[in-house]
Sequence to fold (278 residues):
Amino acid sequence: MTREQERAAARRRAMKVDAKRAQQQREAARNRQALGVVVATLVVVAGFVFLSTQLKNDTTPAAAPKGSSASATSAPSATTAAVAGCTPAPPVPTKITKVAKPNKATAAGKTFTAVVTTNCGDITLRLDGAKAPQTVASFVGLAKAGYFADSPCHRITKVAQPVPLFVLQCGDPMGGAGTGPGYSYGIENAPKDGKYPRGSLAMARTTDPNSNADQFFIVYRDTDLSSVPAGYSIFGTVTGGMDIVDKIAAAGVSGGATDGAPAAPISILKVAVTEKKA
Fold:
């Protein structure tokens, strides 16, 4: 091989080395780019998982009144507000006595007066068995069984938007932690326009229309629940003692929230029911 041929061969070898090095650099660049995409994707996925977890763990109550199972709020906290005319609330019961489902025929076409004695005074209710026979029969049966004794009204709402909700919710002896009386039933007499005027007495429930049981709510300010499918059973009206509900509402929600345990604890001590004769 001549000297010129040797030089040419050397140049070819050098070109091959340079080409290989360039190829290696290009592959390394592609690998770094791919790794960057993978890392960015993992960061996005991790962020999404974290956000989803946080949203799932969000305990902010829904706007609609809650029912008698896991969706109910907890018992009143230690944060209290002094309200004139109220005595200290009794301890929250630790168990619920199961009651057989009353026959709606016992209330059909009848009107009852219920005097709900609370630690803040008496609230008088008119129960309409003509429009909501099963609901009234249930309420009367639970009252006569002493089911509501010492039960706290565990929820007050002061929600203006997006769903106006102004109610005091009661009826669960364990302050929202109970599982109900052992039966449930469907909706009766829900207003078609979704409007619940001040003084309305209605049943609380879960998203299941057939989950009516023990919990009920008193509307202390006109409330519009037209956005809630099926609505809630109106089974009576408050005829006395709205001033008591008003001052509990005025005291606000424990912790300064808009939905939760009343800052001023109110509990049902007993409920006396009498049938109103024609």
